[in-house]
Hints:
The complex is a heterodimer.
Chain A: H1 4-21, E1 27-28, E2 37-41, E3 44-47, E4 65-69, E5 74-77, H2 83-96, E6 101-105, H3 111-114, E7 126-130, H4 133-157, E8 167-169, E9 173-176, E10 181-186, E11 196-200, E12 205-213, H5 224-234, E13 241-246, H6 258-276, H7 281-287, H8 299-314
Parallel strand pairs in A: 5-6, 6-7, 7-8, 12-13
Antiparallel strand pairs in A: 1-2, 2-3, 3-4, 4-5, 9-10, 10-11, 11-12
Helix pairs in contact in A: 5-6, 6-7, 6-8, 7-8
Chain B: H1 2-18, H2 28-31, H3 36-44, E1 49-51, E2 57-59, E3 70-76, E4 84-91, E5 98-104, E6 114-120, E7 126-134, E8 139-146, H4 160-165, E9 170-175, E10 184-191, E11 201-202, E12 207-208, E13 214-221, E14 224-231, E15 240-246, E16 253-259, E17 264-268
Parallel strand pairs in B: 1-8
Antiparallel strand pairs in B: 2-3, 3-6, 4-5, 4-7, 5-14, 6-15, 7-8, 9-10, 10-15, 11-12, 13-14, 13-16, 16-17
Bound molecules: zinc ion.
Amino acid sequence: MCTPNLISRKTFLTAGLALAATPFLRYIPAQAAAMDVTEVAPGVFVHQGRYEVQSPGNRGDISNASFVVGSEAVAVIDTSGSAVMGQELRDAIRAVTNKPIRYVINTHMHPDHVLGNVAFKQDKPTFVGHYKLARSLGTRANSYITANKQMLGDAAFEGTEIVLPTLAIKEATTLDLGDRTLLLEPQATAHTDNDLIVTDTKTNTLFIGDLLFSVHVPTIDGSIKGWLALLDEMGKRKAARVVPGHGPKTMELPQALEPEQRYLSAIAGDVRRQIMEGKTLAEATRTAGFSEKDAWKLFDQYHVRNVTAAFAELEWE
Amino acid sequence: MLTAFKSLARSCGLAALAASMVVLASPSAHAEEDVWPILKEQTFGDRTIIEEDGLVVLETPSKVEDAALVPLTVRIPPSVRGKIKSLTLFIDNNPDPKVATLNFGPAAGTGGERSFSTRVRVDNFSHVRAILETEDGSLHMTKKFLAAAGGCAAMQAKDPDADTADMGKMIVRKFTPALQSSPVWAAQVMVKHPNHNGMQLNINTAEFIPAQYVKEMTVTRDGELVFKLDGTFSISTNPNFRFTFGRGEENNLDVVITDTDGTEFKGQSQPKGS
Ligand SMILES: [Zn+2]
């Protein structure tokens, strides 16, 4: 027989330790008018978007959107792909906290990450982005609005407009939310020319936007060389978790990066060889990177465009 | 040309609004506005144009993925033996329908397949046309339909700062054929140039980015004219041309490009003095 006292004490201590190590994290299911969000670390909430292109059915809910709650204020990181989804995100925030929404941060310019900004205008937050975000989003605003209106349909598009950043991040900058700070780091051209990495320093959670795609095929709208170089650097970072722009709510470094590195390397390798052989852009789009076809969702929608972008960049080497 | 250009430029404002990255609208929406009769009259007057007689072949992608960067290739099959005089490319529903006219010189070559490729912006569902003028002055046309939209207003530059830093950089590359005696050789000219069409509105500054594009390109081989090209902003950012030329002695290519600002860019297929 063992000593019941000791066992119960040990059990109690173990249970207590486990509790301390895994604090109670909330899952807030989709409610009447709010999107579902999951608390992935204390005070850090993520909504996972679908692996789809914009449609009336998904109403622009195709990318991950997050928020971080401090003791004084809330910061939103990416706002989903329409005014209605932005409003649902705001409702989800309000189901968790009534603290003021002080910052709305965009990880980059793409419409599926910024078109929900408009839902937060009523909070009068500071809209924050990479210092090149305003120019890049500004020059694309009309075509983004036109394209998304057509893809989402009038109902899901209702109220959507472009909201440009009011705070431009040119060097590493911290934002205070009360008892926790966010670190904002602007990146050199990779997925786009305005990628921003946001770190919640309290939980060491990295929000890397579309620098990381998982399951959803990556899309190149910046520089394939810059992106591959940045992924090498990012693989050396230590983080408790990363939140991708498209993919599961959280992933782990460095292994989360590997499929994307493999995809981009396959394109770069094939395209470089074809350029050396004197092949044309049209020829490259028929073969380059097709070894990756079965590894990704939405491959048919984006791959040829990726090869086109890679070819137009790498032919200048 | 001016009248047609103005009215088309106006309609492109609407076209740009209707444009999208994903093609959804039906092509018939724009088929009603057939601009070809006007273009034909303004460019060729009452000259007869023979259609689809096989003297000129146009290759376009089966599906357009990036309307700001659509590869086009024109081939003149080896069965066409004589010299060629000119080649004109149109995209009917673009703000300026003319893409380029090439007037060929003595070094354009004969005795094999001749070709010309470039990359274009396509603003709307449109016919693309290639009209070849042969030595006897007869005109031969082929056309293809392209379901692409949004290339004119779309901002193609993915890294505008890097492009600006490299503006004017030119690469002239020759593709020496497997058989060096072959009478027709291929080459490529590419130049870092925004080729801005003046249609990209920056809502940040509420200003249109001013038009600035490659207007003229002259290619010579060992001092003899291969062709002179007159271009428009339908040609994509960082203009890219592949073409054939007649084999000569040294086969040195010289390229002079002039843009709408009057800036001149020069390139050679090999360094001076070598
Ligand atoms: Zn993106």
